[in-house]
Amino acid sequence: MFLTRRKKNLFLVPVILFAGTYIFFHASFFDHRWEPLQPLMNADSEASRLLKFINLYHYKCNNTVNAGNGSGFHVCVDSTGGIDLDKMLTLYSVWSPGGSAFEKVLAHNYSVQTYIIYSNDAAEKDFKNVNNTYLIKTSLVANDYHDFTRNSYGQKTINTIMEYSRHSHMDILKLERPSDEVDLFEVLHFMTMDKLLMDIRQLHIVLVMDTLGEDYLYSWYRVLYNMFYKQGLRLYSTTASSPLCLQVTMMQSCVYWLSWIKDPGDQVFVMHPPADLGTRELEEKRLLNYIKSTKIDCNRYLRMTQDSMLTTILPPLDWGVCMDKPHGLPEHNCVTVIFSPDHETQLQQVLRSHGCRVYSYDLPLEKTNPHTLRSNFKLSRSVKQDITKILRNKEKISLIDVTYPNLDWNILSALLNDGILKNVSQILVEATLDDSVYGRHSTILRQMYSELQRLEAQGFKLFDSVPCTWRQGQQRRKGKVPGTFSCYKLSFIKGKGKALKFRKSS
After folding, report:
1. 324 Cβ partners below 8 Å, 6+ apart?
2. What does residue 134 show for φ and ψ, rounded to 5 degrees?
3. 254: left (phi over 0), alpha (psi -120 to 50) or beta
4. How confident is the model at residue 478, as a pLDDT?
5. Which among 159, 205, 202 has a CA at the least distance from the CA of 183?
6. What is the C-alpha separation between 56 and 66, in angstroms, rounded?
7. Fewer Cβ neighbours under 10 Å: the N or C end of the chain?
């Protein structure tokens, strides 16, 4: 009898394992959350995704210097994100025959100290009479820790070359494919792992489409993606060997010149890379993933007091305003700023009943085209003067509320551009996902996602997110918000302090 029962139990083990595996993959397959860096189904899709990535710039550089007629690179000299070519700069270049214009222009015209890494003897002749150039003969390989021969037999890594030259960083780095045996994306991958790209002010790379295999295309996409998110590099220029190489899909033998700058700071608008193929559906998924995934828990919310006369008028709601110390709304002497076309909002009444001073503005922006570049949105002079006066008195703004249909994202951009939020503890934004002109367009959704990421870069964490309609007479609900709405009330707080409990990112 014992043996029979044991046999039955052994028979159930593979059945349970199979059922568990099926449930796991079934749940994974039908999970509609957007996840980055997922390999796509075929080479055509990988090529389209990679082409979309290199075609859509992250940063708009208004002033560039063309580095010679034989080069596809443009050096950014913007005051915000560019470099000053009149200063002492260091350039490292992994050189290949036929590509000397970039180095010669910078070394000769701008006196940039230029280090040429080469394996072909033609470099010695090409740079023989060029001032400010230093030749380093070696074969460049990736810093793969599993390759024990990487610094022997006439080959070196970027790490070893920098140690040899006694340089802690490079101002400018230009990379071409080192050899037929070494792919450039391998070199970049290990430089990313070693965090060598984080201190580079400008990076210029040559991407050659030797093959259109899906693994090759995915490897390039992954390394460019990680350069943005892990190394803080921003693409600002792409040129190609033929105009056809930038249209529809990639072709074999196409050559691309990609120019990047170091992140210019959180007061400068940076457009994030597209969500995979950049379709409206994928951009919407990524944005909603962010909106529905709070990063911090708030334990106490602002509510109506029992003895307030307003309780007879207003429903018993909380308002997405956190009261937790140290960055929550203080019990006394709180200063709040409201951007709204309404003369008096319910939230203003609640804040006043709490004892806050409320400053309200109904025309907060300078007169600009509502669909101009986000980096150009500015607060009006009078509003900025008022806020500056508040901050000059060494007062901190406890809360900013933006409830302004059709101008909500523009006002948020202006606050980020002007650096006002560095002195603010909380911000509430009634965020509309449908643009008044373009609707729910993929580019508009990507801009919204980029602004939320910039808000996070300035120290804010999302702690509350509910549909706007839930504020109108409904009790606030906890937990995940089901379905998709056209407007969300988003609450952010400065993400510091022991009283706040951080959640892991979903």
Report:
1. 298, 299, 300, 497, 499, 500
2. -130, 130
3. beta
4. 45
5. 205
6. 20
7. N
**Distances, alpha carbon 395 to alpha carbons 321, 365, 434, in Å:** 19, 23, 36
3-class SS letters over 473-494: CCCCCCCCCCCCCCEEEEEEEE
Structure tokens, 442: 């993929």
Contact 138, 127 (CB under 8 A): no
Using an 8 Å Cβ cutoff, are 454 and 422 in contact?
no
Distance CA 217, CA 225 (A): 12
Q: What are phi and psi of 113, to 5 degrees?
A: -70, 115
In single-letter form, the type of residue at position 277 comes to L
- Contact in structure between 506 and 335 (CB atoms under 8 Å): no
pLDDT value at position 428? 95
Cα 424 from Cα 334, distance rounded (Å): 11
pLDDT digits (tens, 9 = 90+) for 174-207: 999 888 888 999 999 999 999 999 989 999 999 9
The beta strand positions in 152-250, using DSSP E, are 155-156, 172-175, 202-208, 233-240
Q: How many CB atoms lie within 10 A of CB 439?
A: 10
Q: What is the C-alpha separation between 160 and 167, in angstroms, rounded?
A: 10
**Ranges under pLDDT 70 in the chain:** 1-34, 68-70, 304-318, 367-375, 394, 470-484, 496-506
Amino acid in position 421: L
Structure letter (DSSP) for residue 62: S
DSSP string covering 378-424: -B-HHHHHHHHHHHHTTPPEEEEEE--TTTHHHHHHHHHHTTGGGGE
pLDDT at 406: 84
Residue 453 makes CB contacts below 8 A (sequence gap 6+) with 272
The tokens of 386 are what? 């008022």
Please say whether the beta carbons of 331 and 351 come within 8 A: no
Reduced to 3 states (helix: H, G, I; strand: E, B; else coil), residue 257 is strand
> What are the C-alpha distances in Å from 15 to residues 24, 26, 86, 225?
14, 16, 72, 41
* Dihedral sign (CA 447, 451, 452, 454): positive
Q: In whole angstroms, how far apart are CA 248 and each of 50, 206, 281, 443?
A: 11, 20, 19, 18
Strand partners of residue 337: 359, 400
Q: What is the pLDDT of residue 7?
A: 41
At 26 the pLDDT is 40
pLDDT at 314: 44
